[in-house]
Structure formats: C-alpha cells, structure tokens
Fold SWF/SNF helicase family protein.
Amino acid sequence: MLLGIYDLYHQILLLPRSTETYYLKYGIPHLKAYFKALAKGEEEITAELLFQTMVRRSRQDVIKRQLAGEEIYIAGQKIRFPKRKLQQFTYNFEASFQGFYAGIANQIDELHLAPYNIKGFKKQKNKQEEDEVKRNDALVALMKSLYLKRLESSLIAFEGSIRNQRNFQERFFSLLQEGKLLDSHNFRKILTAETDEEESSSVEDLIDSLNEIEPQDYHIKKLQSQIKSDLGILNGILNTLLQIRKDVEIGMDYDRKLTAFKQVLSTELKGQKVLVFSYFKDTADYLYNQLLSDQDWLKAMAIDCRKPTIDKITGETPGKQREEKVKRFAPKANGQSEDEQQSLQSQEIDILICTDVLSEGQNLQDAGVLVNYDLHWNPVRMIQRAGRIDRLGTNYEELFIYNCFPEEGLEDLLGLVARLQARIAMIGENVGLDGSVLGEIISEKSLEELYRLKKAVSDADKEAILEELEQTADLVSLDEMRLPLLEFFQLEGEQAAEEIPLGIHSTRHFYIPEVENGAIFLAFRVKDEHFWHFYPRINGVISLNLDKIITNKRQIFNWLKCKASDFPPPEKLLPAKFDDSIFDVLDVAVCNLMTLFRKQETSSIVKPKLNKSLQKINQALIQFDPIDEDAVYQEAKRRILKVITTVNLRIYERDLKLIWENFAHKKDLNALVFELDEFFVEQDQYHEIDEEAQFNPSTVIKEEDIQLVCYQWFKPE
C-alpha cells in the first residue's frame, strides 16, 4: 500500500516495541527525530532500515505486477492506481517587463552580502579562518539561490526577502558607523529566518545573535564599500518592484502569473477540488488573499450560484486547525461516519492552498488535481506531493499534476542557479560543507528535469519523464535488489553463493556520470550487519574522506547491477591485473567505518541545544517553585525537565515560545507546568523518554569484527 512518512514511522516503531533508539546500529540514533527530519526533507530513507524492517511493494512494484496480469488485494479490496497525467500553464512576465528576469538575476549575482562573511575582511587569517571564508562564500551563493527561488515563486515573496536583507544590512552598517563590528558566525540563524516559514526572527533578533569583535583587525573601508554597493542594488530592486506594483494598482499592468493561474482554475479546473502547493508562505498568503478579493473571478467560478470555498494551510496554521481543514477538504477520506462526512461536506473546502508543512501522511484523495504554483527545484518533490492525493481509495481514474512555467526568462534564471550551485559544489569539494545548513541542493540533474518538464509536449514525453521521476521518488525497492540474487540461486544454487570466498574482487570498466573518474566499491560485514561504501576517484586518487563516501544502497545497486550477457564468456575474459593499492584503501576505509560506529554510539547521549524559550523555561523551573508546591507538581516538573534536556524539540519552537510568553505575562508557575505537561502528553513526548533504551557497551564494535566481503574497482571506459 502507499505509506506516508508518519504511517511508515509508526509501523517500523511497532517492531522493537516502541523503543526509539533500537535502530541506533543502523545509523539512526532516534527513530522519531529521524522521521521528523525525513518529513522536512533533511534526511533520506535508508535502504538498510528498510532491509531490516520490511517486506515491501512500492507503487511501481505493484503496477508492474498488475501489468503482468496479477491481481493484488489488501483487506479484500482490489488495489488500483489512477493514471497520473502532467499538465502545465504558462505566463509571460517579460511581455511587460522585457529582460526582467535577466536584469534581476544579474543584480542578485552582483551582491556581496559582506556581513555574512566578515572573516573575509580580516587582515591576517589562519588556515581554519581561510576555510571558514570559503564555506561562507558557499552559503552566500546559497542565499542568492534562495532569492532566485522566491523571485520565481512570486514578487511578494521576493520583495519580502529583499526588504529584509536591505533592513539587515542598513542596521549592520549603522552599527559599523558607530564603531561596532559584528561577526556573522551564526549563519544558520540567518538562513533559518529565510528558509523556515515557522521562524519569525526580526532584524533586531538577527543583530542580537551576532558577536561584537575588534574592528582594528579588519579592513573596515573595504567592508563599508561592499555594504554600500549592496544597499544600492537592494534599493534599486525594491524601487523596480514598487513601480511594478503601482502599475498593477492603476491598471496599467497585472500579475501575469496570478492571472494565468486564475484562468486555468476558471476554465479547465472549474468545479473540481484542487490542492495548490507553494514552497513559500508569503506566496501562499498572497494567492489566498488575491483569490478571495477578486469578486468577478469568484462569480465566474460559481456553480449553481455557489462560489468556491478557498482556504490555506501554512506554518502559521495551528495543528488542530490543520487537521480540521484537511477533513473539510477531504471529508470522504477523513470522515469517520456518515454523519461526520455530511457535517464536513456542509462546510467543504474546494481549493486548498498550502506549503509543504502539509505532511505526507494526509489522506486527500477527495481531490483529483494538484497544482504546483512555483517551480519544484527538485522535481522529485512533485511526485512526493502527488502522493497526497494519489492514495488507496481514490475514485479517480486519472489524476492531474499542473506545473507553472514562465514562457521567457527561465533560461536566465536556471542558468544563474546552475552557476551558483556549481560554486557551492566546488567549495564543498575543497573544504567540505555542512549538509544540514545547505538544505535541499539543486542538482544539475534537477535543472535538466525542469527543462524537460517544460519542453514535454507530447503525451509520450510527459509519461516518460513522469515514470522516471516516480522511480526516483520511490523508496528503495527491495524486490528489485533481491531479484538478481534469487535468479543466481535458481541457476547455480545457494551452495554456489555460499562457496564464494570473502574478499573476492573484480574490476569493471564502466562510466558513471556522478564519479566519471572511477571509484571503488567495498562491501563489509560486521557481526550480522552489512555496510556498502563507495569511494570516488578524485584527481587520480581514491578519495577516502568521509564527506566523499557514498552509502546510498539504491544508488550503489544501480551502478553495480549488470547481466552476464554484458560481458564476454568467462574463458574469453582476461583477468585484470591485481591492484595492490587496495591495502592502503582498505586500511583507511576500515578506520572510517570505525569512526562512523563511534559517532553512532555517542550520538544518542548528546543533549540537544536549547533555544532561547527553552533556556528560559528550563531556568524558571530549576530556580523557582510555587508556594503551594505539591508532589503532583514535582513529578510533572521532573518529567518536563527530562523532555527539555533529552529530546530535540525544534519543531515545537513556535508552540513553546507561546507557552513561555503566556507565563511571562501571568507569572504563574503552576499554570506553566500544567500547560507544558499537557502539551508534552499531547505530543507523546513522555512515551519517548520512558521507553528510551540505554546504549549497551556489549554492542561496541571492534576492528576485528569487520570483514571485507568483496570489492570492485570502477574504471572509466
């Protein structure tokens, strides 16, 4: 069946009887934290976890079996999947503002964003500081990429970011004029303010997060010059956007993207239930307000005098309201009884506009149309979003996925994004970058897929790229990976496999675009576990840096898989010369494996970093007690402090901030403890800490436990 992320989490958690740390040895210190990161796109599902927990059939697996004539049932219901169909609508912003995208893109590329890389202006730098400058250069490129994403999404989203940047640099420059220099070492905080829709840091909050440093150690005039240059560019962009908005207000022009969106809703999609996605909260809010305020459009959308009901879900929507809106949007899928369904249908939502905070576990199959208002810079995300409406129980034979593209200017936009991403990748190769800061990387392949999606005109072209993206988006298919082994057993017998000696190796001349200079694959066995490591060859040498290692089993499997018919008969296949550099490679690879084990062993005992609200709550509970304190209060406080100091609560920052602000206003410790206790019960946090398994020293891996099963050299053709 089709599983959402949290559906999968709950099923996997059943196996170890709700022990969150059971999967530590598979590189997952805490299961729920791992799945929360998965839901936000910060992690990828590991093949190892699926191998250990599931017998699985993906959507593609089931479809292949059905095409072969097999009928598949779940709970007595015959499984069927609707056909997904790609559609698109376009707009031409350049018709009114010729060269707009190219002009704006060039201005963004000219930005220095100097406050984000203060170390670059230091008069004397050591090696560590030189590397920090390079890393911050990559993060500056990342910020520019983000601005381009917001530009494509909507002028409102873009203007908000540019205005925030202008205000930040003005405040930074003002303090610099007063003789104060601030170091932007905490780039993560600044990035989060732009990328996390639930983060609402003001300019003053960002300034307060920076440390004051000695100005005499830095080239202040050069820094001032770059900030002045940026302020000129930023104000110029804001003036351009202001003029566009004025033209729209007086009717000289209009938002062509919004107009195209309204047009497709009122023609092709009139009367249908539509789910609309945007990456950005600003854009979602803008769409919602624009649709509701256009009375002429609403009248044109009316059926039997009933205008469509429109609503939205963003990071600002409280959890209970999200649940209620999901039910109203999909009453058939979520109503528990006929009475509840009828009640929900009386206030049914027809068009739901949302960001990706709408989690994958939602049943929204009442809808048959998904609209991506802005470019999905990782097209696989399009498939993941489609899973919200493509679920078991849908009544649709066909589901439509609409994508929006600019008719002109896309090449300029994508061209600069590609250059920025190449710059980030080059710096990453030299000094290494923190993937948790970089977030979702826009790969060259993703950009190529965007071009293909826009240019796909025929049904055959659309089906081809859709199938390719669906296969990529699928979780690792265990059937596909086990099939070659089962075929070998059938031909040669299991005994033949058991007789293969440890350490067997081969050489294959095979071109892999991602590692075009070659690589080495190493398969290890450690007690009952198996580890696949793939090291690329860089500048003629196998790179054994841990940041270069590839462990994705699906990816490695696709590189390894081959057929006997791909090679000459064994008697005609000349043996490859033994490469004794394997010994040096193996020594370092084993050390790397031990390093990974040590990280896994210690990761479960690392305490989470507390944000400002949690620090204040923790301090208040430790330092003060109410006059009428009793045993119930003490026990609740003990539980709360344990959660605060052991569980990563970042996803609840907004809720905890509100709880703290409520306490700061009322000064009632009993109320604070009661509210926190109720919140943690509702979020199931106590279950986590009560069932937490402690690390068992007997499971420590020693170097002698590591066995090399096999290895394979990959060399260019």
Remarks:
- Residues 690-698 have pLDDT under 50 and may be disordered.
- The CA atoms of residues 489 and 496 lie 8 Å apart.
- DSSP finds 30 helices and 15 strands in the chain.
